[in-house]
Please model this.
Amino acid sequence: MNSILITGCNRGLGLGIVKALTRLPKPPQYLFATCRNKDQAKELQDLAAQNSNIHILEIDLRNYDAYENLIKQIEEITENNGLNVLFNNAGIAPKSTKITATKKDDLMNTLETNTVVPIMLTKVACLPLLKKAATVQSNFDFGVQRAAILNMSSILGSIEANADGGLYAYRTSKAALNAATKSLSIDLLADKILCVALHPGWVRTDLGGSRAPLEVDETMTKLVDTVLQLNATHNGGFYQYDGEKLPW
Model:
């Protein structure tokens, strides 16, 4: 891929994806990494200092008025080539689990961050850039080499796989994101823009917790390898970091 925008890169999975991409034999020419506060993203800054293709974009994704400036920053760098990949990774996970502990504010905040933001960022900021990239790379079929929207979901968003209940805010937000991914895959079919929902596995991060069995670097390396192999057969699907297809 020539260019990719990844949200939520100050730590955890987003930072892990950036690291995995820099380790590729042929990293993206332009790697845009967003964070809310650049001063607090020390490790990301260090990585950018070592890799000139990394561009840190400071933005609060719930400030929808800031999207226009985000577009301008990307366009100034990629010029007339658009954006090949949007990776909606940023998300939150409230700690409340049972229905008796569920709060309205948790539901609303989680739904906005995990579902509304990815949809609006796709629509307002990135869709014109993705369509431009799809036109420029029209010799490629479905895949990240042409144009793709990757939404970081979770197996906890699977309705069929839910055997434990609880986690109302997180589960519903990710199930909604899965539904949005499927709709995008249909709406953007004519443009051959690939749309896929991804489950990163249970990874040891601030959100995943210390009990998680998977390490960030190893798992995000596998996820990037999977992403590079996505094609038309994956469009509108839900996949694990290692390529395993997951139930809705």
The mean pLDDT is 94. The beta strands are 3-6, 30-35, 54-58, 85-88, 148-152, 194-199, 238-240. The chain has one domain: 3-240. The domain at 3-240 is CATH 3.40.50.720 (Rossmann fold).
